[in-house]
Design goal:
Number of strands: 14
Shape: globular
Distance between the termini: 55 Å
Number of helices: 11
Order of helices and strands: EEHEEEHEEEHHEEHHHEEEEHHHH
Strand content: 15-25%
Largest sheet: 5 strands, antiparallel
Helix content: 25-40%
Structural class: alpha+beta
Strand order of the largest sheet: 3-4-5-7-6
Amino acid sequence: MPRPSQDGLEWKETLFDLVPQWTRDVSIAAIESVCRQQLNIPPEDPCTVAFHASGLFNKLYIVKYTKGPLIMRVSLPVYPRHKTRAEVATLRWVRENTNVPVPKVVSFDDSNDNEIGYEWILMELMEGTPAHRRWRTMSMEQKVALTKRIATFQVELSGVGKPESIFRTIGTLDLPAVAPGLLVSYEFFMGDHVHYDIPRGPFRSSHDWLSVVLHIILRHQTAILEKTDDEDDKEDAEEILPVARKLLSLVPKVFPPTLDESETMGLYHHDLHLNNILVNEEGEITAVLDWECVSALPLWMSTNLPKFLDEPAREEEPQRDGYADETPEESAAAAGKRNDPDYLDSEGKNELYFIHRMEYEATQLRKVYEARMRELWPEWPLEESYVKIDFFEAISQCDGIWVKKSRRWADCIEKGETVRFEDA
């Protein structure tokens, strides 16, 4: 008997959000069995499976056999079939149309009606170490080179100079025809949102896409207001609803429907932090990871900075001698973490020095990134996209702790005032 499409998934409400939970364990033996079948490994040949890491929606396992290691990515069915199939389609498109190093997909199953009991992707294990672990020992020249390379990748993903790589609708790539389909994005599948009877893409314009996102927020908050007995939740919904309605009324002002036909789309990787960038010992990029939910979005989204450059501004270089050394307590705590693969050696200095160091480096590297983008893409729509980027940010923050900021920004836009969201 087939499993229900979301069997194994449960959503847990936390203080700020809904978080997906695994209701049953993933069987190592089942993964080994599936790998032996998919890779035609004889019973007498070795095949070992070991847990590697986990993310919000996935668990990763390293599979070793005679032809080398692979990664098995087992996924919760948050958006049954669509999310797994979209990730496979995206990886294939990136490999075929850009120079971005991404894993090759060996095999996949976009249903949970299999021996593992979950959707899965078996893919190439990419060489390299997360840049986060090497960052403190990399030279500034290496960091500049990495930043320029990421800018080059963004230009390639945007389809600049390659008409065949430009998309005309908003959505996540799908199979068998690798083209934008349903939009696989958190707000579309979290909790019971996956069952909402709403347009899901592909969308032909920013206007249509963001209008639907706001309707999702309105529907969710209205349901809270009508069903919850928690006074705090009701109070939050009463504050969020008018802000979402105001933003919805402003969509035609920021994204006039008459301009819809002129929009073009490109792939946008929204989660380029240093743990998703692998590097070798020379600091050169060997892989870019985590392509789930990466979609074809309007080119104005490409003016967002990569996550690793999104730090507070700091122009003055922090001087190491100006910061305190670790306290004995901090040193003792650090000693207990040295076997953690994510441990970063503070070299006896207070952690504040490295925080300020990262802010300073990100500030300088932002200039490098923007200069490289303009060099490769002279028409890069940076300044003209500010209000669109801020509108997207206001939507993203209006149903959370920054609702008041979203309201202040929307009030300014309604009055015709020019203000950045971060300054509202």
